[in-house]
Amino acid sequence: MPPAWPKAHNRRASPTPHCDHTITARLIRSWQECRPVSDRGTPIRVALPLLARGIYIAPFFILYRPLELLAQVARTSPHVQSPHIHHTTMATTKLKIVFGAMTFGRPDVEQTRVHDLKDAAAILDVFQKHGHDEVDTARTYGNGSSEEYLGQLDLPKRGITLDTKLAPGSKPGGKAYTHRPEDLKPALLDSLKALNTDKVDLWYLHVPDRSVPYEDTLREVNNLYEQGYFKRLGISNYAAWEVAQITEICIRNNWKRPDVYQGVYNALHRAAEPELFPCLRHYGISFYEYNPLAGGLLTDRYERTTADKDVEPGSRFDPTKDQGANYRTRYWKDEWFDALDIVRPAVKAAGIKTTAEAALRWVVHHGVLDSKYGDAVIIGATSAAQLEDNLTSLEQGPLPDEVAKAFDDAWPIFKPVCKPYYRV
């Protein structure tokens, strides 16, 4: 059993000999090293926790976060290395970016497109080069092989935090999981074994299991949290009323409350805005957005007239696959292409490189996601070059008014046939 995550306390680090300053921080691990840094060219030495979170206060570093200072230390003191820092680049995006690893895995299963570990590592190199360090997967992705690939890449040594999810009915290795209390721990242990770790940062209930009373599920989830198997709790694809019900159950019993909700949201799928987002804001739950490019339909890849035979095998809209059927039910409608007929000319007239770039910039700057709530965009990729393009787009500024207006004018066209944000 892994050691339990310690409760976070704001406390002052104990003095370290020969250091000029100590740092008040939210500590995960409390041991320290005396490290050389500089302030405007003046060398000082700071007692720095090896891992810390939260804003700390010190005379020279009031506006920095500890992990940012670690990156600064790595730049100014090359001889000081931390096993938890793989790179020194800081993210420049307005929102947190999470890599979605659904495409990683064996070639003989659905969803996977990246089958070589070297290619997977190259994709993650690009991700980290842009300053990001959180990777999302699920027990069901690639029939369990997404987790296995990530486990072989040993992401914690790269400074990457891991998130995974448990869906009822998923059958990696022939195992059918539920959200019954007796199934939760074996399922989570299967994920941890595949990921080659003893804990994850964020563990989700992937989709609702309405066959099990939520109180029964959440009681065992809290037990697993107290045993230290995960730090943050996520829920995904639940209706707003279920989010409220789940959170109130946790509050009433003093159990671990949800920290993150993962759901579908993009420029032409805004069904979550009216009721889900007010619920999340009320309870202080972050929103991690998936499908920013609608599985590829918010790009220039597909037209209304694209024939089934011309769709790339294994892609999200491959009609021969279950995944393709699901995505076509969600997005492939005349109303979607009618909406794109408004957006694409505006994007071209504004001189924006691609519809995909415009869609990603919309999510960052014009939707309802907000960094102050800890919201994030989940972006996947099938190649390092594709990820480089998409991350570069996410780093760009707001859209011209006419392009933002085109998206706003297009959404009501698709809205009447838009599927719910939750799973029914």
User: What is the CATH level 1 assignment of the largest domain?
Assistant: Alpha Beta
Q: What is the overall silhouette?
A: globular
Helix content: 25-40%
Radius of gyration: 22 Å
In whole angstroms, the N-to-C terminal distance is: 36 Å
The tally of strands reads 11
Q: Identify the CATH architecture of the largest domain.
A: Alpha-Beta Barrel
Q: Mind summarizing the main beta sheet?
A: 8 strands, parallel, barrel
Structural class: alpha/beta
Describe the structure.
- The protein is an alpha/beta fold.
- The protein is built from 12 helices and 11 strands.
- The chain folds into 2 domains: 10-76, no CATH class; 96-417, TIM Barrel, CATH 3.20.20.
- 34% of the residues lie in helices and 18% in strands.
- α6 (240-253) packs parallel to α7.
Features:
TIM Barrel; 8-stranded parallel β-barrel; 2 domains; 424 residues; alpha/beta
SSE inventory with pairings:
Layout: E1 10-12, E2 24-39, E3 42-57, H1 66-76, E4 96-100, H2 117-129, E5 134-136, H3 145-153, E6 161-166, H4 181-195, E7 200-205, H5 214-226, E8 230-236, H6 240-253, E9 260-264, H7 276-283, E10 286-290, H8 322-331, H9 334-349, H10 355-365, E11 376-379, H11 384-394, H12 401-414
Parallel strand pairs: 4-5, 4-11, 5-6, 6-7, 7-8, 8-9, 9-10, 10-11
Antiparallel strand pairs: 1-2, 2-3
